[in-house]
Fold this sequence. Notes:
- The protein is of the alpha+beta class.
- 28% of the residues lie in helices and 27% in strands.
- Strands 8, 10, 12, 13, 15, 17, 18 and 21 form an eight-stranded mixed beta sheet that branches. A five-stranded parallel beta sheet has the order 2-1-5-6-7, sandwiched between helices. A five-stranded antiparallel beta sheet has the order 22-24-29-26-27, with no helix packed on it.
- Strand 12 (685-692) and strand 13 form a beta hairpin.
- The chain starts with 14 loop residues before the first strand and ends with a strand.
Amino acid sequence: MNSYPPELLVQLAPVMFIAGLEVPAAPDPVPSATSDSPPSIRPPQDPFNVLTIRLRDALLSQRTTSIWQPEKSKTFQAVLVDKDVRFPPRKIPLSGDPHGPAHSPLSPLTPTSPLHPDGLVAPIWVRKHTTLVPSVFVLFIRLYESPPHHMPHSPLDASHPDREAEERRKDAEMSAEIALRKRSTSERGIKLTVVLLASRKLLDDPALDTRLTFIRRQSGLDYRAALFVLSPVSPSELSEFVKSLQQALYEPAVEYYTSHSKRVRRKRNRHAQAASTYVPPLSPLGTAGLARPLRPEGWTVRYEYKMACFAEFRGELEVALKHYQDAYSSLLTMFGSTAILPPRTKRWAEAKVLADCINLKICKLFLYNNEHALALSQHTIHTKRFSDFSRGWGIGEETFEFWSWIARQYRAFAELLEHGTGSTLILPTHKPATANPAPAPSGLAELDALRVLGLNPANALQHPGFYYYMAAQATERRRAQFLAMLSSMEASGTNFPGFANEKKVDHFGVVIELYTKAYELFKKHSPLSNGHGQGRLTLRIAGRIAGTYYAAGKFDLAVRFFERIAKTYRRERWDAMLRPLLVTWYRCAQRLGDVELSIKILVEMLAHDEHENGEGALQEDLLLVLKSTVPSSHGTPLTVDLSDSEPIFDTSIIFWTNEAFVEERIAFQLSITAPSDVSISALPFSSLAIYFSHIEEPVMVHHNVDAAARGKVQRVDLGNLPLEIATGCQGYLQWEKSATIVFAGTVSSDVPRTLTIKRAVLTLRESNWTVEVPIDLSAVRDGPIPTPRWLISADPVNFAPLPRGHTADITVRYRPHRVQVSLIHQSPAYLDEEYPIVIGITNEDDRPLDVVLDILLQPTEIDEAVNHIRVDDEHSPSLIKGVTLGTIVPGATTHKTLYLTNTGGVGDRVLDISLQSRSPVAQDTSEVLRTLSVPTVAPMKVEYGVKYMHARRPLPGLTDLRTYESDYWDDGEGGEALIKARMVCAGPWSLSVETVRLVRKNGAHARVLECSLDEDEDDVTSGTVIFFLSSMFYSWLSDWLPGDEFAAVCRMSLSLEDEPGEEEDEDDVISGPGEYELSWRRILPNGDHGPLCTSRFPLPNLQPPRSGVIALLQLPSSAKLHAPAHARLTLRNHHPSRTASITVQLEPDTADAFLVAGQRSARVPTLLPGAEAQLLWSLVPIECGFIRVPKIRVVDKRKVGPMSPTEQEPPVMEDEGIPVRVVDLRRHERGEVADAAVEDTSDVVDGESIRPILVLP
């Protein structure tokens, strides 16, 4: 933007003149008398001087002059002036008559104006309103203060007689000064504000208000925001004062510029009415050179531009934008006619500058509102419109002036964007929107759908670097047209306008400057697409910079750029970009005389075949350089590193197999194929060095001219390469186009390793030069990757494809040890058995082997399974590691027994057996893995049957003190349980059972009373009873075959909790008070017995049913005819908290065969919880056979409501109470009752379930 007047581009703001803040000069320091004297104490600084300095800084820092300032804040552009500053005249008379017409000194109607007679707007007009004429004038004056000796010591003291007179005189002088300034500002409508500087002590003076009133009236100041008093304050308070001052004066400033706008608008309207009848004046004969006055279109431009500026002063940017657009439209109308603005005139040039500046203003105001598309559209339209105008003016694309103007437009737009992005402008991100599937759109919806599909790059605002790049390209076109005109001038001798100035322009410097700015901005805004810190567009611009340096003759700078750019192009294989770069780079090296660099670039260019001299030109240039020059250092070869570049040759490494053993010969082939589009047959390659990974020195192949082959494929036999020793041979080392040389041989290794060909180096010798060209064997040229092929014969050519994908290396390892592993065991295994597994290891190798055994027991998902393994004395639940088996000589076999013990559930157990063997040679190890799945079954299966019985003995009384003793056993409610165990031999193998016993584990709620395995009373009381099956009575049970069964019965007493639990599964479950223990041995197929094993089967959990009120009927099983038999009915209340009111009715029938002696209907006294009562009848049978007992009905007449919100009232039958269950004790089992409050009355309510009595004669 430096090519345009800054006044036409800066952001305009209200102007405030500040007078009276002159900083007094600091007094000269007084030198000390002697150097030894202490430093003088610095005198305190005047507080009003400090206040003046702070005021200047605070006012000037509120707003600075800049191009980009979108903030709409009530701040001023402060200008420091003298107190006696004078304003420029508003109007001057056109003649000496003071009463004649007068115009502004800058008006085209004023003969002395620089715009006379047809000028539009000069930058001086904007400078006038920004530096010469303010909207607000702020005058700072120090208020007079009387000397200290004139001041009263206290408020009651009388004032000094001279004080008031002196203050009144000083105030009158100040008022006169202010009135004079007020007169000059009022003539122009400028707001005058006076700020009086006073001390804090003066602020407390009661006479201050009187003095201020006097000053205001005498000076004629307004009553609104015209007079302020300020004392020395802190910086924060001073900042608040400055802000409040600007806010108070902002409205008068806006009114000032509004009045100017109204005045200009009235002129425009009057001029528009007069312009409708305007007739262009005709120049009289002989006066063709006289200038004509400004046309109406020009006046419109002036007025619109002035109104736009005044709106910008007011901060009304939308209004300013509208006036700028109107002024721009009028300018386009003027440029459309060469009669109004003839080309290449002074006014035409001024109008072009004004149009460019207005265009930038419009773009800037669009960008303020984030209307990026409109700003870009304005720039594009301006460039296109004036390009069309330029063609009509004879300044088309063939002139340097056209491209100079284009470059200026792009550069100014880029600088505007750069100003914006450095402040508040946020550039848009151009990412395609995700299109949602929807029905076919129509109308406006169709237009929106098309916008989603893509974006026209011409309508997308880019970052500033793009426009700097466009400006640089336009500058390059400018230089090209300048050179074309220069050659035309030299040929024809004609002269072109502006050519003398153009010759002074440093085109290369301008282009490099623009490209450099574009490079930096592209680097800043572009994403790192390649992950190496450089975007491809950035490198493209760097290439243009290097090309410009080359064209400018700065070859050393161009080479620096080429080196950095080529690194990325090589790494990313951008051959299309690298080829022209290498050509220019080579030319720079030639101009610099750098021979080594020239050789390196020529060798690299052999892979691209990019040279303008045709086929074979590259190798000719290379040979010419080698023959005509000498190296700088003799004896040191020049190495050309092509690791990141395109390879010259296509290479292929093939090993016949992918694995081999130590000291085994391995066949390999190395194929080197020349490119098909590059001729290198004349290059004098003297040798080829092939480096293997296991040999430090290379295998050398020397060039032999006599070994030339006749075909495209030749074979060089390297023979059997010895171990660790370099060797050499001869072969023909010149390639025609697409020719292939295959280097074949065999190699071996004496240690395990990965063997491959690391690299190959071709050596080129010519004259005094030795050039080494390393060949990257892993790189491939552009095109399809060649398929690995094995050369069978060279004449005729016969290749065999290899099916393997990776052939470039081979793994050499030791020959695996021949070890045979056998696992001997009798499957399946039994639970609780120490299961033996014999591991047999046989050494079938010809070397003695040290063997180590690792055993891993895999975790199992079987519930409650606890397993462990044992080898010798080492036990582990999972892993036994490092079991040494010693050295096994060839042909020998050793055994090791592994014991597996399984408990818990049945299922498969998995063992991983690892056998590591080591030969006497270091690191010669081998491993054999075996996985063994051992099915595990139960040796015996035990099934339990449980029967619960009521206690027969009477319940203890409620007052029985024995129940409170700690060792008292109360089985009144729990009763007894009878557990029958059925043991079955469930496994496939026979068992030798040695002992079966019941191990008692009596608890707090269950005790074993007796067992069928008990032998005598002593064994019962001891708690551990052993039943010897090998005794003379049970010898036939010692061996159990699969399917054999054995039974045992035990009886136990149960004691329940006093309070039943809410959930039976948690509180009412009683653990079994013991377990059956069986000691057994497995009977092997050969009749031997295995190790002794012990299996334990715990008794089942017990959960006896609970009952509330129960009736127990005790009857004899048989009776004698006509002999009395007794029936005893015991009523028990087992409910923990309820009493029972029971009635018993004996309901005989005429069909009964018994005569009953006893109560027919009885009411039992109230039964408390835990109490019982008995009734006795005597029954005399009168018939023989199975005689039914008379019906006995027991009813609990007590009625209760629910005890809890969830408890329901027990069912009531016929409103007679709750039936009570009557149990026949001869049945020896109890019914299941879920709740003591709700008894099961489905049976034994009518006596039908009471079994009959057998009556015998």
